[in-house]
Write a structure and sequence with these properties.
The protein is mainly alpha-helical. It is about 75% helix and about 5% strand. The chain contains 8 helices and 2 strands, in the order E-E-H-H-H-H-H-H-H-H. The termini are far apart.
Length: about 250
């Protein structure tokens, strides 16, 4: 799809990419200009994530449920392709952020590349399966707003000039961990299992090759596993800190 501005028609993907890049630059050079140089890039990344996460959930939900065909093998609709373009643009922007500021963060760079592989092959290679991919996107991004607020607070909690950040971080941690655990530890695996079972039964035969849905399954399964390990470690650290406070 494309957006028409005056006499010009601009494809969604470059338009969305320009939007996220502009937001990132505004965040880095204006919004967070007074923050320490070490945390400005992370804060700028969080801001574009805020502009992606919740809007992506709303757009994806509308795109999926506005279509009469909601099979995991259904042909992508124009609205679903727009959401895929929106998310591809975000992940490209954030990927450049990691390459420039955190080139050694192999985990996140690998995550973004793998996610882009899933989105791009669904969007431009097979033109089917958006309902499955957008369902996963909804589950992945529904915790985004809370996670970004928690991350921003965490970035400044060691700053003596920002006592509020410590309070916000401590206040958000338990509910964020609980919310994330339910979504990534329960709902995500259930949806993933349903998707894999559908494809394994041949539900997408003729429209999505076996090698591709298996690749999607490996990427998503790995992401879910890493997410569960990440939140598990955060719970352990939270209880360790609270136990230490009681001993004092």
């Amino acid at each position: 799809m494309s957006i028409t501005i005056g006499e010009f028609s601009i494809p969604d993907l470059p338009l969305f990419f320009s939007m996220f890049l502009t937001i990132y630059l505004i965040a880095y050079f204006i919004v967070f200009r007074n923050w320490k140089p070490q945390i400005r890039p992370e804060a700028s990344s969080c801001l574009i994530s805020i502009f992606h996460g919740t809007p992506a959930v709303l757009l994806a939900t509308r795109a999926v449920f506005s279509s009469s065909a909601r099979s995991f093998a259904s042909a992508n609709t124009a609205a679903q392709n727009t959401v895929l373009d929106f998310s591809v643009a975000y992940f490209l922007t954030d990927l450049f952020h990691y390459i420039v500021f955190n080139p050694n963060d192999v985990l996140f760079i690998g995550h973004h590349l793998a996610t882009l592989f899933v989105f791009l092959t669904c969007r431009f290679l097979v033109f089917h399966g958006a309902c499955a991919i957008l369902g996963l996107l909804i589950l992945a991004e529904v915790t985004s707003a809370c996670q970004n607020a928690w991350t921003l607070a965490g970035a400044r909690k060691n700053d003596p000039e920002s006592r509020l950040a410590v309070k916000v971080y401590d206040l958000l941690s338990p509910p964020f961990y609980a919310f994330y655990s339910i979504v990534r530890g329960v709902l995500g695996p259930l949806f993933f299992g349903k998707m894999v079972a559908f494809y394994a039964r041949g539900g997408a035969h003729g429209v999505i090759p076996n090698w591709l849905w298996i690749s999607w399954a490996i990427v998503v399964g790995t992401a879910i596993t890493v997410s569960i390990l990440w939140i598990w470690n955060l719970w352990i650290e939270l209880f360790r800190q609270r136990k230490a406070k009681k001993i004092r």
